[in-house]
């Protein structure tokens, strides 16, 4: 089954939308309305829900991926300025070894300290990568997802707050070569990294033409 991609343009003047953008738990609950109910013990994973908050030209946008066609009528009518959805099958079918893509992902660039932790008290805790270490983290994850990274632009984002917990976020975007289209399709469908319930892990791709590649060279 091919996933669906939905773009929601939000009204930042709406009080409910402002509260939504400030709370990762509220975002998760709100967007799960796009999926059918009674999805078992792992509803988000079964729904295939991944999302990313992007800065639109004027209004904030949420890009949402679901395993089935989203139930747009289930969202409140107020606060959403525009909604558009499409199947991802044409893009996923077009992915091929050696193809060049432009990618974007908001991810949670963390590792859990093991015995190599600098202090014993840190063993088992999450460490957030930043700067060159974050780029290395993404390059390794991209390679495991079937991408050979050419360029990468890293930008730290505000943490997502869920109750009293904070989830680190960073934006990675650039160009890459497809090394394994099958693995890459799985990565797009399943997401990459931690905190996927709270706006991380959605990988967006755009295949580049020869003219596009010349323009980025």
Verbal overview:
The structure is a single chain. By secondary structure, the protein is an alpha+beta fold. It has 2 domains: 4-87, Crispr-associated protein, domain 1 (Alpha-Beta Plaits, 2-Layer Sandwich), CATH 3.30.70; 92-216, Crispr-associated protein, domain 2 (Alpha-Beta Plaits, 2-Layer Sandwich). It has helices at 15-21, 24-31, 43-47, 89-94, 132-144, 181-190, 210-216, and strands spanning 4-10, 50-55, 60-66, 80-87, 100-107, 110-112, 126-128, 147-149, 153-162, 165-178, 203-207. The strands form 3 sheets. Strands 5, 8, 9, 10 and 11 form a 5-stranded antiparallel sheet that branches. A 4-stranded antiparallel sheet has the order 2-3-1-4, with no helix packed on it. Strands 6-7 form a two-stranded antiparallel ribbon. A hairpin with a 4-residue loop joins strand 2 and strand 3.
In short:
The chain has seven helices and eleven strands.
Features:
217 residues; alpha+beta; Alpha-Beta Plaits; 2 domains; five-stranded antiparallel sheet; four-stranded antiparallel sheet
Tell me the number of helical segments per DSSP (H or I, 4 or more residues long): 7
Radius of gyration: 18 Å
Count of β-strands: 11
Shape: globular
Q: Tell me, what is the CATH class of the largest domain?
A: Alpha Beta
Largest sheet: 5 strands, antiparallel
